[in-house]
Amino acid sequence: MTALNRVPSLMARAGTASALTIAAVGGSIVVPGVATDAAAATTATKALQVAASKKGAPYKWGASGPRRFDCSGLTLYSFKKAGKKLPRTASQQYNKTHHISARSRRAGDLVFFHSGSNVYHVGIYAGHNKIWHAPKSGDVVRLEKIWTKSVWYGRVS
Known about the structure:
Blueprint: H1 3-14, H2 19-24, H3 37-53, H4 71-81, H5 90-96, E1 98-100, E2 110-115, E3 118-127, E4 130-133, E5 142-145, E6 151-155
Helix pairs in contact: 3-4
């Protein structure tokens, strides 16, 4: 048995371990009510897959699925299917997310389009500067390149 293999049993005998000790042996600390990065990634990945599965669904203002969507209806529906509840509008969704930088964005994060402080559109980041979204009347849910720099990013937790 190596020294690292004995550490967990030594900690068990001691009864407690500091956060530094746990980190030193490659363990993790669970904080109730806080999603782990892995859990958040799983939810985001599932939401992204749900949005992609709606490719070609017609846009309809105020619709939140399962056959027609507006932009925030698609994100609401996708995250609901992934097990997370979001509010109805793009601006309400922005206010409910953890705001992140463009450098920190990951597939499954939300992309909020804004004019000044007004959020007017939302999609789900798919990677490679593209989003799944429900663009506008007469269009369908599709994958599209982000067309402006006036975007903010949010992570659903």
